[in-house]
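User: We ran a pulldown and think these components assemble together. Before we commit to crystallization trials, I'd like a predicted model of the whole complex to look at. Sequences follow.
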Amino acid sequence: MTVVVLLGGPGSGKGTQAEILAERLGIPHVATGDLFRAAVRDASPIGLEARRYMERGQLVPDDITIQMLLDRLEAPDAADGVLLDGFPRNRAQAGALATALAERSSQVDRAINIEVPTDELVRRLSGRWVCRDAGHVYNESTNPPQVEGRCDIDGSPLVQRADDRPETIRARLTQQLASLNDVVDYYDGAGLLRVVDGVQAIESVADDVLAAVTSEAPGGATGAD
Ligand SMILES: [Zn+2]
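Assistant: Here's a predicted model for the assembly, 225 residues in total across the polymer chains.
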């Protein structure tokens, strides 16, 4: 089993890359947000427990999230591995995940950071527009609508929320990236990290991510020297 952790800031394209990579590797893309929703929908015991926190607007405790992840790893489609997206979000979670996996003689095999400079993330995120009627999301640079100012799906006007202004976004990003950098440092220290340049076309990023997962020795042993 191969456990891959995909890391990247908001706007890094991580979700898109996770979908592409999961398909190329033939392993499931496991996003913690989806896990929560599925567990609540299926009313599993752990899902009900998670729901108690979510209903109070609290974060689901790490041990519950990790138990959900471990349960997910037991599913038949995860026999060859999983691609984790959205967890761990901080160093404590990374350590807890490592401990839980070690108890099952498993481990995170590789962490991939899709690296995009903060200024570029701000640029991408502040180009975010949302359709007024259904909340479909567009982006000026990475996912523009076919007709400017109109939703492709339902034709309703696209609006920009105050939350999506550059200065608001930069302040929020600074916090989020601090936690992300801790996780990146954690995996770097464990010798598991690979960094991919996220400022490229989607296909090029996808090729680099795949190469980073499938190549053996970190640092890329070429034997050429
Ligand atoms: Zn729409």
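The chain has one domain: 2-28+75-214. That may be worth checking against your pulldown data before setting up trials.

User: Thanks, that helps.
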